[in-house]
């Protein structure tokens, strides 16, 4: 039996009912779809509208994902604006059975280096034996952590990996240069999968793969099998087409899910739903690339 793929992790959208309540029945179906495709789920991340979820909802989603996919397949996001909340979320996730966690840096307020270190040390202590990934997204958090500073932080706080989003997503090589070989680096830039691998990254955490995992898995498999540029080019073109239409937009991803017949649900946040013309293009994209 082949080993599970580890190159593409899917950060899932969160489905809500029309009146804004969390729709766990729909979430179960989405989690099963991802468990059967990429096989790797990130729960309650940016694509999942985590700022609009309360603590009990984040725990419920994590518990459901663990039930559907198992601990080895789930990365639970526990980031919060402050260490007190992040520690509570971490304890919830670990008690539910999560063994891999990701924590966005504190956000909204600025943070000095010692405050950032304290935040991750407190989350690390609460995480116990679980793997802990930092999640760097300066455009959303307001906090920039450069490669050299991050390497010090990772060592001091016992981090296992990092997800680089926004500007850092294109700087895998720069971060990789300051980190030990065993440290795991993922990029949130869907389109740069092959570049990420070339630069020593483990792969991508791809929001677009929530609706259309096939092109990303095909490209990753070909790249890892040693395919040449001529073989990779048409596969990359498929990925580029998906990213151009769906990313980064939870609203567009949800529309693509609906076209596939999956229960995307409504949203609580402003997620960028497509205009009619773009919706038509997404429908054609799904017809061409799904399944």
UniProtKB/TrEMBL annotation:
Pyruvate binds at residues 47, 205. Keywords: Lyase. InterPro entries: Aldolase_TIM (IPR013785), DapA-like (IPR002220). The keyword Protease does not apply. Coiled coil: none annotated. The active site is at residues 135, 163. SUPFAM superfamilies: Aldolase (SSF51569). GO terms for molecular function: 4-hydroxy-tetrahydrodipicolinate synthase activity. PANTHER family: 4-HYDROXY-2-OXOGLUTARATE ALDOLASE, MITOCHONDRIAL, DIHYDRODIPICOLINATE SYNTHASE. Belongs to the DapA family. This is Dihydrodipicolinate synthase family protein.
